[in-house]
Amino acid sequence: MNILINFFKRFSDNLSIKISSLIIALTLWLFVVTGSEYVHVVKIPIHLRNLQQGRILANEIPKFAELRMRGTGRQFLNNQLTTAFADMGIMLEMGRIRFYYEFALEPYLKNYPDRLVMPRDFGLELVEIISPDTVKIKLDSYLEKVVPVRPRVTISTDPGYIQVGKTKTIPSEVTISGPSSLISEISESFTAEINFEARKNSVKETMDLSVSNKSLIKLEPAEVELTANIQSIGERRLEGIEVQVRNVPENLKAIVNPTTVSLDLQGGIAFLSGLTGGEIDATIDYATDWLENKRMYSLKIVVPEDVINWSGPNPSEVEVIVIRERISSASTGN
Q: For residue 96, which phi and psi values (nearest 5 degrees)?
């Protein structure tokens, strides 16, 4: 125990002097080490400049190049701390290119050293380009057009609930732009694939959009709002549905009794509450259904798509009497 106490006592004696000596030693070591010359690999972006008006890149190219650089440790450390590497770039001059060109980076930068953009006082020397050795450029004419958005979603509802209407996106169309060879082949954009299961509430989600070759194509906007109307299921008896007789000859008149019928409907509660008789067809076709000695006729019923089920009509048949229209003397010219 006494040995341990004596050790800490000796260590704490002149502690400030010992710490100062350690800092000086580390500083000298760091100065010596960072003064030595090193070769490191750095990654810098590749940029295109001076594209001709109306031309656009039609193939994917590497976003970065890996370069082997030589310099002192202090230079590498200083450039890392000041984010100088982020300000570097290889500039590929596009002014004279219309369709296709291959940039061999090693000879390109040797012939045009100013195309390797570096901050002032960067202090590092380019040793070699590791990758890519060649950048292939393919250009095309610029094109934009409007395409519809197709939702790629599957929605299932909880028992007692139903989706009313189709799944929609806002907006329903977007503008795509890019190389004409790609844009001309695209007829639609689409959302990400997603499943909504056992829904009781309506869907309202922001979704990213996609097209083929998305990296070369711009979408505006790049996302849409996806909506789906989910309602609980209910029933309603809808009165006042007008009966119509179609394709009656001009010289005849069809008299219907009663003139309206009712239906028992099943569907989303909010949807049924807003439904009117004018949205349902209750018809007889004179051209195909009329018989001279027949008075009672069944109706052809057509309901909106979002009606799950229906029964009726009430009454199930209506009376139809056909009479000849009177022709006025004015219409005959007498």
A: -105, 5
* Beta carbons within 10 angstroms of residue 327's beta carbon: 9
Banded pLDDT at 125 (limits 50, 70, 90): confident
Task: Kindly tell me if the per-residue pLDDT of 149 is higher than 70.
Answer: yes
For the chain, the C-alpha Rg in angstroms (whole number) is 40
Task: Look at residue 35 in the predicted model and tell me its pLDDT.
Answer: 54
Confidence at 328, pLDDT banded by 50, 70, 90 = low
Does residue 192 surpass a pLDDT of 80? yes
Query: Over 60: is that where the pLDDT of 331 sits?
Result: no
* Phi and psi at residue 249, to the nearest 5°: -55, 155
- How far is residue 270's CA from residue 286's CA, in Å, rounded to a whole number? 36
Residue 308 in contact with residue 162, Cβ under 8 Å?
Answer: yes
In angstroms, the CA 92 to CA 46 distance is 7
pLDDT digits 0-9 by tens, 168-186 = 999 999 999 999 999 999 9
DSSP string, 212-274: TTGGG-EEESSEEEEEEEEEEEEEEEEEEEEEEEES--TTEEEEEESSEEEEEEEEEHHHHHT
Across the range 130-144, mean pLDDT stands at: 95
Helix, coil or strand: residue 46: strand
* CATH, domain range 37-132: 2.170.120
Residues contacting residue 108 through CB under 8 Å, at least 6 positions apart:
92, 115
CB 171 within 8 A of CB 207: no
Q: What CATH code would you report for 141-232?
A: 2.170.120.40
* Range 234-324: architecture per CATH: Beta Complex (2.170)
Torsion angles phi and psi, residue 67, rounded to 5: -120, 145
